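INTERNAL AUDIT FORM
Audit reference: QA-55
Scope: verify that the stored structure record matches its stored sequence.
Auditor: D.O.
Record contents follow.
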Amino acid sequence: MRVKLVNAQKRNNSSHRVMNRIIVLIGVLIIGAFIFTFFNASFYNTPIGKVTHVETSNAQKIVDEQHNTDFKYKQHLTIKILNGKFKGESTTIDNTYVKSQADSEHFSKNNKVLMHIQNSPKDATILEKKRDSLTVAIAGIFIMSLLLVGRNVGLQSILSLIFNTSAILIAIAIHDKHPSTNLFNLMSVAIIFSTIVTLLLVTGWHMRTWITTVGTLLGTFLCIGITQIIIQLTNGAGIKYETMSFLTLPPKDIFLASVLIGSLGAVMDVAITISSGMYEILQRTPNISLSRWALAGRNIGQDIMGTMTNILLFSYLSGSLPIFLIYLKNANTFTYTISMNWSLEIVRALTGGIGIVLTIPITISLMVMWMKWKGVTR
């Protein structure tokens, strides 16, 4: 027994050292990538410029017909071109922006910008700021946080995130190459693979992993099916498909595909929380009765049901908050603003909420069926 404990301790120490080396290696790569973004202008096909001097005029107060007040500024920018055939040359560009920066940008000295040059630097215009350094920094902080807190599980989460993103992008690419292919069907296949791979990476090859997978997929597709039936019965009344601005693609298919992707994460979280919680309870109290065990799973589900629904709702609504405020600022009524900006988001959140609620009894039932299949009848 002592020998087994010593060997297990050695394996844990070895695994710990390997994980530390992986974290250090990834940290070095992230720092290297961040430094590289400051010197990578030559790798861009788009002209890159660096703002070397800024002259800003006095603010001009502007008031629109709805009495909204803002301030307009004019900038005279001197920009040095960092790549392309005009590398090393400087040009001047006038930029106008408003303080709110609702539809314009403010530039400061040392900002790097993406440019469009037609014939010569005199014709140059600014497209947008070069933001790869910020992107790498935020992504690096996110990755290192996962690795430092989650360690092995964090690494598995990163791998699953990469796989999930790739699966969705591949589905979109296939639809782009073959427009006649149904986007919803492609997304359905993508999320099935995503669910299986994610749960195998996070929880390992266990029976409860497959129970969680089945519970997740059943909950997700059931809520999509219910939504489809309701849309058919009501003829989609109140759902503002026109706000999606898709002119050549069936809006309902795109909407259902977006609901499928958005609901999956919350439903999966509920399923894995219930299955892992019930499994842990069983490990600690192996003599618990099936009815008591199922009740414990229901209590877990009730605890997370409200919070997960709120997470879905807030995440959907937050994306359209800026345009929501713009509608209100332009004297639109509150009800009209909600219908034009939040109707789709509210339907997505409600659909996801249905999936969350359905997943709770489905996962509990599957866990109980698993125990009965093992011969437990108490």
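Auditor finding: record pair retrieved intact. The beta strands are 48-56, 60-63, 69-81, 90-98, 112-116, 125-129.
Action required: none
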